[in-house]
Design brief:
This protein is mainly alpha-helical. The protein has eight helices and three strands; from the N terminus they run αααααβββααα. Strand 2 and strand 3 form a beta hairpin. Helix 7 crosses helix 8.
């Protein structure tokens, strides 16, 4: 026995009415513009709409940092005490504009995530630990109260600034 056919009167403009209720969104981007409010200014919006991409400016300050020489041994000791020593030698020097553009087009600062075709990707603390070889256990640093005179003396000794400018910065 066959089920009887159900025939209903559906207005011809029902689809248009439903479309009016949906937010417009962005081509290739969020369907709800309230989610990523700065998307219209993001490079990904230019890519999806076929507009000219803004020129990518690469800045690398590694040579400047290396020209300063090694940090003062006392500063290196403080850094070693935090477990962040691997960061002293950590830098990225690449001229691959395509690679950097691909990351920029997919990174959204509003969500702190990469938005990919397969979904969103978040960089976790474990990822940072694995990539930079940093410990992520315990306290980063236990800060002790520091008297202004001690802070001034540290600035003079470690950063080799004048006592007068060190005092001005700490007041």
């Amino acid at each position: 026995m066959e089920a009887p056919a159900v025939v209903e009167d559906i207005p011809a403009d029902a689809g248009a009415e439903a479309a009016k209720d949906q937010p417009q969104g962005f081509l290739g981007g969020p369907s709800d513009p309230s989610v990523l409010t700065a998307y219209v200014d993001h490079v990904a919006c230019s890519v999806w709409t076929g507009e000219e991409r803004p020129e990518l400016k690469l800045s690398y300050h590694g040579r400047k940092v290396h020209s300063l020489g090694r940090p003062v041994l006392a500063i290196e000791g403080l850094i070693a005490g935090t477990g962040l020593s691997p960061l002293i030698a950590c830098s990225v020097d690449t001229d691959d504009r395509g690679l950097l553009s691909a990351f920029m087009e997919r990174w959204h600062w509003e969500t702190s995530r990469f938005h990919l075709l397969v979904g969103e990707l978040t960089i976790t603390l474990d990822d940072v630990s694995s990539l930079l070889h940093l410990p992520v256990i315990g306290d980063l640093h236990a800060f002790q109260p520091l008297h202004v005179d001690d802070a001034v003396q540290m600035l003079v000794d470690l950063l080799m600034v004048s006592p007068k400018s060190a005092r001005a910065e700490t007041v």
